[in-house]
Amino acid sequence: PATGRSSCGATGCRVTSLRAERSDWPRRAGATALAVVVLAAIVALRRPTGLTQSTIWAEDGQEFMAQAWSGLGPILEPYAGQFWPLQRSLAWLIGQAPATWWPVLLYLTSALVVGALAAIPLQSRAGALFGRWPFRLLLSLLIVLLPATFETQGNITNLHWWALGSLLIVLALPEPRSRAGRVAELVFVAVVALTGPSGVLLLPVVLWRLLVGPRTRYLWLRSGLVLAAAVVAGVVAVAGGRAEGNDVVLADLPAFLYQRWGGSLILGDNLMAHLGIGPTSVWLVPGGVLIVLLLVLAAVDWRGPSWAWLLVGLAAAVSGALIGMRSGDGASLLEPRNVERYLLPLLFASLLVMVRAIGVRPAGWPNSTGRLSLVTGIVALALCTVGVAGDARLPTQGAAVDQAQLRALAPCYAGDPPYESAVGCVVAIQPDSWKLVILRPGYEELAEDLREQGTLR
């Protein structure tokens, strides 16, 4: 390890010196940047109206852009009982641009971040998880084309779900070889683990990594960061969580998972919404088969991370269904596209399990276990063809933001006529009835009162 690294394939092993790798850094950095740009372009083009009919989505405006002019002071300010350093940092950066640019910058920033996260499997060290480069490229393309992403694509509000999926990979990778790489990875892990519920949900992967070893000092440090983030998230959730009622029918959870897990992967949300497919539809039978195949793959890979990946995804889906439903109608849990943001980690994890099954050959290959994994993985991926293709193009998220309202933000915030006595500056955003309200200097303390009155939404 002090002089180089070995990589082994079907034709034998070779050792690459660290000096040669360092000298090759510009080429590798350029290839990485190109991959991120291409993947981000695919993400952006899934919803062309995000560029031609740009809007500001939900908390993008109401919570994050509303404080973009407050500096980085609110970076650890809780919202809905959770911290959001990832979104608040991005909102602060976007806030440095003219307000009329915000809608398209929010869209492009989201696409760029997802593209960067999807490029993680292209690292050479990801070969230990997913095999040769073609399999890693396939995984990156599947990630940016993930089905059931209507409300998680094109906004920064839901980026933590994509980042959580990427940490499923990062926490299972061999540790970076360079000191700079380790520092960068620790910063990334800390920010993502502190964002939303990620730290708590990632605990199964941390446990698996500690069990399989080797338990190096770096591994303990990285695991400790996630554990600390989980404790912080738990304390903040208990101290500042919302107390709205929850009318979810627990008996509906199996049908919810059956319909939204298997159905989203094999059919995609666009087709399910168009056909009005419910959990009793015969069209979902292949989705049930796919779920069984994924469980088989996790069982076969019992020493690998597959079971931990799926456990994280299932925890996100179930906790999201229980926490996120406040409509008062338990049956709405089974509506197409409902609470789909909570399904993203589970769908993400499913892709990781399937690609790992076809890309990595177990010790002693060919053997019955290896053949079972390969065949099962191929069949599972084939079942996802319609879902991925059908959801490749996403419908618009709503009407474009009124440019006149955006142009008025800066003079309103400055108190120019006729805004001398204004408390805050307002822009109507999507979904309907949501508002971006930027409080003028001196009135920031009214934020909580206005939120309780519903003015901020």
Strand and helix map with partners:
Blueprint: E1 4-9, E2 12-17, H1 18-23, H2 25-45, H3 49-52, H4 59-64, H5 85-94, H6 102-118, H7 127-130, H8 133-144, H9 159-170, H10 179-194, H11 198-201, H12 203-212, H13 217-240, H14 253-266, H15 269-275, H16 285-300, H17 306-324, H18 344-359, H19 368-383, H20 385-390, H21 403-414, E3 424-429, E4 434-439, H22 447-453
Antiparallel strand pairs: 1-2, 3-4
Helix pairs in contact: 2-6, 6-9, 8-18, 9-10, 9-18, 10-13, 12-13, 12-17, 14-16, 16-17, 16-19, 17-18, 18-19
Short description:
The protein has 457 residues and is mainly alpha-helical. Helix content is 57%, strand content 5%. The chain has a two-stranded antiparallel ribbon with strand order 1-2. Strands 3-4 form a two-stranded antiparallel ribbon.
Explain what this protein looks like in three dimensions:
The chain has about 450 residues and is mainly alpha-helical. Strand 3 and strand 4 (about 435-440) form a beta hairpin. Helix 9 (about 160-170) packs across helix 10, helix 9 packs parallel to helix 18 (about 345-360) and helix 10 (about 180-195) packs parallel to helix 13. About 55% of the residues lie in helices and about 5% in strands. The N and C termini lie far apart (about 55 Å). The model is unreliable at about 1-15 (pLDDT under 50). The strands form 2 sheets. The chain has a two-stranded antiparallel ribbon with strand order 1-2. A two-stranded antiparallel sheet has the order 3-4.
